[in-house]
Description:
Pfam family, one: PSCyt1
Protein name: Formate dehydrogenase, cytochrome b556(Fdo) subunit
Strand order of the largest sheet: 1-2
Oligomer: single chain
CATH topology of the largest domain: Fumarate Reductase Cytochrome B subunit
Radius of gyration: 40 Å
CATH superfamily of the largest domain: Transmembrane di-heme cytochromes, Chain C
Helix content: 55-70%
GO biological process, one term: respiratory electron transport chain
Strand content: under 5%
InterPro entries: Cyt_c_Planctomycete-type, Di-haem_cyt_TM, Hydrogenase_cytochrome
GO cellular component, one term: plasma membrane
Distance between the termini: 99 Å
Amino acid sequence: MGNADRVYRFSTLRRIEHGVLMIAFVVLAATGLPQKYPQSPISLALLQAMGGLEAARIIHRAAAIALMLLALEHIGSVLYDLYVRRVPPSILPTREDFRNAWRALRHNLGLEGSPPRQGWFTFQEKFEYWALVWGLVIMGLTGFMLWNPITTARFLPGQWIPAAKVAHGSEALLAVLAILIWHVYHVHIRRFNRSMFTGYLSREEMEEDHPLALETPSRPILLDPLEMRERARRFWIAYGAVAALWLLGMVWFVSGEKTAVTTPGPIPDVARVRAYAPLTPTPVSTPSFLARATLNLGSSWKDGVGAFLGENCGFCHGPRRREGDLDLTTYEGALKGGKSGPAVIPGAPGISPVLIWTAREDHPGRLRPSERAAIWLWIQNGAPR
Length: 385
């Protein structure tokens, strides 16, 4: 294909940036998502292939550093083009891009016959670019907070750290889905766009996706060499200072705090740790009245407990008077209880009201120690019917 049949779109620098970004993104996704979903079979396989969680964390941090350096370089190159070379900022979104998005939606719904005619960058490409910028800002800030949690907690509330973890993982998942669904479709499935690898796009593809760029070719930018050198000098002084601060900040960022970097070592004397220690019942003291002679009321309600309670407590807590809405003449009434709740709680004599109330001095119906011991044992055995 001759030069007349293709259009030069991306410089060597932009293609190198894209390659580094692509590698860093894949590495970050492959090492980060398994940490977000550690129980997934795919995550376990990836972590095992990388040599374990600690190796994955180291690789993840290395890719993050590469991405931070790439961001520094890209910002510098963009500012150089804008300030020194006076290249128009064609990647900035305009109102026409929103109109094109609306026209594209109508075209996809069959309401318009032809797609919108767009210029050097389509609204889809601009959306992807600025979504990437936004994602890098979010991932960078939250990554800093997770890498340096103690430093973060000195300036922000502690709740920001778990919030940063959620935002970091959610933004990463969103970025991966955007690449797999949006980017892969527009660049690889709809038509394989090789311009980020070769630098060129065929004229036929340009006429289909960027017809306005062919109809209004860019005019050469005429610059005064002396003025350009002066702007370049001022740019490199300012950018050099910013880049130096950026690099110093990265050094501090990477080495200033080891809280989230150092993995705790193995627990000492693991072999001596008692792995199985069954619980034994806590010994309790026997109430003094149980140590005395116990009245034989039988082992169940029908054997004698019911008759005893009906005879001694039924006058006040029977079907006629039912003081406190309590009937102790029937087994169901004793378990149901009254206003104070169940009178008998099987297996728990210490908190059964029938024993608590009859032990009070102001209660008219008090039990002798032997009677109290018999009721205690009956309840302790589960208050069988």
